[in-house]
Design brief:
The structure is a homodimer of 456-residue chains. Chain A has 456 residues and is of the alpha+beta class.
């Protein structure tokens, strides 16, 4: 079927495509906050209606958490599955946004037009690039060039608790020849990229309790144990002075990077000064015996993502709190076992507790790292399609982030995942003022049309 | 004038006294939170009206912050000034209160009747013990036994920024023969106590900034500096493994306790197991080379009163925040200079900052420690009056808390302060479910009547 006709239709329909994306962006589907559960359902319903409107048999599927959306449309050719997530990150601190995060708009910036709003890049905008490509194809040719299954979840930003059970229970329906995933970015915001290495993710929350109740530091200061002090001492020991994580056996299953991959990455000439300079930094933190790109793509990390305890309002309160809390996450590499690291982390914290203190832990997800096998010709076909659209040679890359679903497709469905996305480094995903370049959206839709053409 | 008649009237009027206190407790006069500024003014107005209702010439005096209340009533005999504060601590975390903090009630507990509510002990209940004693005396005898000045402030819980300027500008009006202060407790909740040693207080807030914006730990984790990690490393170094504060020169001006005072305190046989056990602890934290009572009354401390940064809501967010914050306070002893300690603390933090991080500081008050001269016969007279009321021999003591006004009376007004209060260790001041024993309130009123009698 004719590709150019589809590309022309995509160009002509860009305004309508953007309007549809804005409808989805206006739904505050924050999955991690129970207050927004209804809105997550609303986003799922919107997607079902959107898919149906161009002939996809779509429905919302209930889970223990937020619903899945599954849709099927027939076609001659291979069976492709497309995955995206309709949930978004929380928006605090709200005062750092220059507008309502859920009232998106097109803004002119010195780097071109951007779509501003929560989820514009992660992942509603990316998800809609594929949906809009399919709509254009269907509209132009009446049929799609292959059989396609749409699979959207609403818990990606909160650890995907329902995902694995759902995939296992519906493996037959979801299994495909290839799983396309659009939740990644372009190398240095300019090179179209197929991600083939992903870090795993482990989330832990800990609460340290000292006295039964909040105390007055005038009366008890100096004699009663302060759980904030205990927490800072424990967290301060998670890294040594070389930036290495100190949890026992942490690096046991971390492979050194193969020489050929290291050379390929070196040829990318990663500009870490610019990468850091864009966010006001100059010096790579962390492990000093690896290059910055290796640190992001192939080394495990431990980060404190949140900490709180005592009085944190305006003014001052000389309280000696009963409890202090932190959220800690680990990015994992190679065969690092998240469950073993969880156990070792907890044992290390417990061993460091002084008398009269106790600790409780809360799990926030656990996934291993994943590496994709790229020998299938579909990968070179897709890479060439990306090269044609962007005028820059497409590349395979690692990725610092964690997209557990990539491993699930391999392990549960025996379906090879292919991760392609059009996000840029300055998209501020998970931060105030998230945006998605209008070019990412437009050329993203065109890229998928080209890839559909190349794979069929 | 007849004391017994006054004591009988106090007993007969207890219900009405309690009703009046409840009116004051219902006003949420949280001084540290700008949202409650109006309520602070309401509490001041209430006090003016209350004093006027038994013949005191009282008025509200504006300041840059919350207003002062000053009242005068004539009488033959010495000129006594009475100080208390009408502002209260914040009430968070609200969910740990068993009722609305500003809807006080009398509750039956296994330790007797208590007045439950924010400010019941600190300091509205204590303040009203003196006011009610004066009211009873005036009602019974038509006059008071001496000249009395009432002086109430509304910024005690937020560093008293207006106090010193106000005292300096009104020194002639406020200077008295003796300044009575009711904002302290009873030793081991049973021994009536005149506090003669108070620790000073220094408050600091620090904000550490790393990247310009919040980052995604998948993309930047490992390579971008995390200000929470920096903050925990800095705070963890504030104490060594013996519980000593590590700020340079911190202990330079801290005197060792004189032998006679140490012996007097040893004779009190402080039961630190019970003191700690009441709040779920067993082992004295802090400096290990001083007794627990010395630690509280005569040793300086450094405490982290609040810490926050990153994502602290429900669920998980893999953010690498731009900023991390802490509130730190110091209790001071002897001649420790709060301004010098502030400088040394800031220099230590700045020296510990890694590349790409910056720090800003915010002041939250600074006061030196104070020691009262007790050679005037008024002290023994007051101590004997307390012994008569409570049937337990009154004592002089130190106090871990900081009541800067004691030093101000000495330094600005050349008026000796006398600190007497009826708080108990389990009053939960500054915590959820604050209470004041009904006995503290009732016998507190009676104690002041006896003291007025003894001093005139």
């Amino acid at each position: 079927m004719n590709l150019d006709a589809v590309l022309n239709r995509i160009d002509a329909d860009l305004q309508r495509s953007t309007d549809r994306l804005f409808e989805l962006l206006r739904i505050p589907s924050i999955s991690t906050d129970p207050e927004y559960a209804v809105q997550c359902g609303t986003a799922a319903n919107w997607l079902v209606d959107n898919l149906k409107s161009f002939g996809v048999e779509a429905e919302k599927r209930q889970t223990q958490g937020h619903p899945m959306v599954v849709g099927h449309i027939d076609g001659n050719g291979p069976h492709l599955l497309f995955y995206g997530h309709y949930d978004v990150q929380p928006v605090d601190p709200l005062n750092l946004w220059d507008r309502d995060p859920f009232l998106p708009e097109i803004q002119d910036t010195n780097k071109g037009k951007v779509i501003r709003g929560r989820g514009s890049s992660d992942d509603k905008g990316q998800l809609m690039t594929f949906v809009e490509a399919c709509r254009a194809w269907k509209t132009e040719h009446g049929v799609l060039p292959c059989r396609i299954t749409f699979f959207f979840e609403g818990e990606e930003e909160s650890g995907s608790p329902s995902l694995v059970p759902f995939m296992k229970n519906n493996a037959k329906e979801l299994k495909a020849d290839l799983a396309l995933i659009c939740d990644t970015g372009m190398f240095e915001s300019r090179v179209p990229t197929i991600v083939t290495m992903l870090r795993g993710l482990l989330g832990e929350e800990l609460t340290i309790t000292g006295p039964d109740i909040d105390l007055h530091s005038g009366m008890y200061g100096g004699i009663a144990i302060n759980p904030i002090r205990v927490l800072t001492k424990i967290l301060a020991k998670l890294h040594d002075h070389n930036g290495k994580v100190t949890i026992p056996n942490f690096y046991n299953s971390v492979p050194e990077l193969p020489t050929n991959i290291r050379q390929q990455w070196q040829s990318l000439a990663f500009n870490h000064q610019k990468f850091l300079g864009d966010v006001g930094l100059s010096v790579p933190a962390g492990e000093q015996d690896h290059t910055p790109l290796e640190t992001i793509w192939s080394r495990p990390t431990c980060e404190i993502n949140g900490i709180w305890g005592g009085y944190i309002g305006d003014g001052f309160k000389t309280v000696l709190p009963s409890k202090a809390h932190a959220k800690v996450s680990f990015r994992l590499i190679g065969d690092q076992d998240p469950h073993e690291i969880r156990r070792n982390f907890r044992a290390m914290v417990e061993a460091a507790l002084p008398e009269d203190c106790s600790v409780t832990f809360k799990e926030h997800g656990a996934s291993k790292a994943s590496i994709t096998e790229t020998s299938s010709p579909a990968f070179e076909a897709a890479r060439n399609a990306l090269t044609e659209e962007w005028g820059v040679s497409g590349t395979y890359s690692g990725c610092g982030g964690s997209i557990p679903i990539a491993g699930h497709f391999q392990n549960i469905l025996q379906t090879t995942p292919m991760l392609i996305g059009f996000g840029k480094d300055d998209d501020k995903i998970h931060s105030p003022n998230e945006k998605y370049d209008l070019t990412s959206f437009h050329k993203g839709i065109r890229s998928w049309a080209r890839i559909l053409h190349a794979l069929t």
